[in-house]
């Protein structure tokens, strides 16, 4: 996940991601400067991951996994696009609780939707 995150960061951040330390060349295509393009890329990646997930779990998976995960990803994608409608950017004080709480809440929700496969991964 770290490698894929670094690659995706290289696509969206402005040039400033060091390859091997502060004195090394900096990467970044700066797609954040064009949010619709950046969000479209994220949406395509999410769609691809949902398709792979559905192929992985197979047709015999519980309905909560077959339908719940794609619906959850659709809602999450819609939430990702919502900043385009904002007239002013949120303050750091508004963002910090979400940065801390949302990964926990989303992780618990996804685990609840697909407990069977999550438990099987540890067997």
Question: Describe it for me?
Answer:
- By secondary structure, this protein is mainly alpha-helical.
- The protein contains 5 helices and 2 strands, in the order αββαααα.
- A two-stranded antiparallel sheet has the order 1-2.
- Strand 1 (17-18) and strand 2 form a beta hairpin.
- Helix 2 (35-57) runs antiparallel to helix 3 (63-81).
- The radius of gyration is 17 Å and the shape is globular.
- The model has no long low-confidence stretch (mean pLDDT 83).
What tags apply to this protein structure?
two-stranded antiparallel ribbon, 5 helices, single chain, mainly alpha
Topology:
Layout: H1 2-12, E1 17-18, E2 26-27, H2 35-57, H3 63-81, H4 92-113, H5 115-120
Antiparallel strand pairs: 1-2
In short:
This protein is mainly alpha-helical and 123 residues long. It has 5 helices and 2 strands; from the N terminus they run αββαααα. A two-stranded antiparallel ribbon has the order 1-2.
Largest sheet: 2 strands, antiparallel
Give the N-to-C terminal Cα separation.
22 Å
Low-confidence stretches: none
Q: What structural class do you assign from the helix and strand content?
A: mainly alpha
Cα-based radius of gyration, to the nearest Å? 17 Å
Question: Helix share of residues?
Answer: 55-70%
Question: Which percent band covers the strand fraction?
Answer: under 5%
Number of strands: 2
The coarse overall form would be globular
How many helices? The count is 5
> Which H/E pattern describes the elements?
HEEHHHH
Overall pLDDT metric: 83
Strand order of the largest sheet: 1-2
